[in-house]
# Entry
Amino acid sequence: MAGHSKWANTKYRKERQDKKRSGIFAKLIREITLHARSGDPDPANNAALAQAIERAKAANLPKDNIEKAIKRATGDLDGATLEEAMYEGYAQDGVAVLIRVVTDNRNRAAAGIRHIFSKHGGSMAAAGSVAWQFDRRGTVVIDELPEGVDRDELLMTLIESGAEDLNEDDDVIEAYCDPSDLRSLAETVRDLGISPSRSEVTMVPKSTVHVEGQTAQKLLRLLDALDDNEDVQQVFANFDVPDEVLAGTA
# Structure
């Protein structure tokens, strides 16, 4: 899954460097509100909410914003009715794409995603035709180690704390776990004085499609357009592209 993984990591690095982060925070707040409203507002008793909060922490969403989102869900503050949906499609060269949305208007979300696929040379797919190509996993990503942290000891600690798979690419460490273990694995990392750059439940492709040249550039433009849509929370795809193509998007 090298292509999708590197694209996601590049995107998150951009977000951390971007001074105009209101759109990113708005999406995170919307997701927290959804899960707090649809279940127990206490994350200790609501795995989906705990995972949403974990993702927000990794993005440095202020604690006050998290608390307000939960209050909005419990009726202490006004807020729109939200719902979650998954859309599926195909991009260039048959690359499978999964899109997870949290929206207050499902018709608007579907129309927006359909328009983006059409504009960028992709197509929507029937429910279930793409999802089977992915596994649901918890993901904790570390791209900066503080001084004094031993890399080998860190990897061993991650395994002992629930990491089922580890992927190392240059200075980036990706730890994959069962979604139910995400919160505890991320807390282990923070207890070591390390701030994860990503901590979320993701969809990991079972296999990848290699894409190069202009086709790869078109694919990345499609994925970025989907990711920029206000209703879209996460975009997953089973592609692999050359490093130089991804470097051109940085």
The first strand starts at residue 83 and ends at 90. Strands lie at 83-90, 96-103, 123-125, 134-142, 165-169, 172-177, 198-205, 209-210, 232-237, 239-240. The chain has nine helices and ten strands. The first helix runs from residue 2 to 17.
